[in-house]
Q: What sequence folds into this?
């Protein structure tokens, strides 16, 4: 039967059409990731990222993109459409766009956020797209992670039980 339609799931083309209707001064926040097994750490990070602006767009690694990152032969655990649907169900997320490249650089260039956010395991100077955002006058933020929450650690625990 398939997943129900969610208007927060969109292509970059659709997002850019919607972005054109934003009021002047609208502060767009962007983050990205695999979000393979959504957990409390993800929700905490996404909620804090959204609080930094007026709307939050999440760039979601496609299944092929997750494979390129070398997270393991059995990753992603959940297919991209399921991961996107779950993210879109969060009230703090305003849009989800799946990208197929190894990094979200082209997506960041296209959507031009005022705030670029990653988790605290990413130093600001290593965040993909940081130079693009700062050159445009935006801000790059590395938010501290919620301690004790990691997809890799969670999957290790599940596999060992």
A:
């Amino acid at each position: 039967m398939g997943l129900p339609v969610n208007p927060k799931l969109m292509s970059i083309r659709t997002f850019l059409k919607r972005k054109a209707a934003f009021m002047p001064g609208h502060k767009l926040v962007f983050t990205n990731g695999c979000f393979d097994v959504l957990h409390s750490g993800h929700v905490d990070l996404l909620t804090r990222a959204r609080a930094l602006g007026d709307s939050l767009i999440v760039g979601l690694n496609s299944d092929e993109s997750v494979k390129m990152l070398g997270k393991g032969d059995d990753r992603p655990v959940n297919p991209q459409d399921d991961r996107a649907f779950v993210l879109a169900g969060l009230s703090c997320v305003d849009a989800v766009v799946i990208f197929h490249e190894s990094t979200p650089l082209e997506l960041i260039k296209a959507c031009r956020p005022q705030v670029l956010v990653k988790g605290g395991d990413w130093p600001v100077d290593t965040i993909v797209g940081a130079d693009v955002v700062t050159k445009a006058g935006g801000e790059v933020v590395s938010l501290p992670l919620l301690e004790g929450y990691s997809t890799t650690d969670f999957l290790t625990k599940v596999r060992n039980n």
About this structure: The first helix runs from residue 12 to 19.
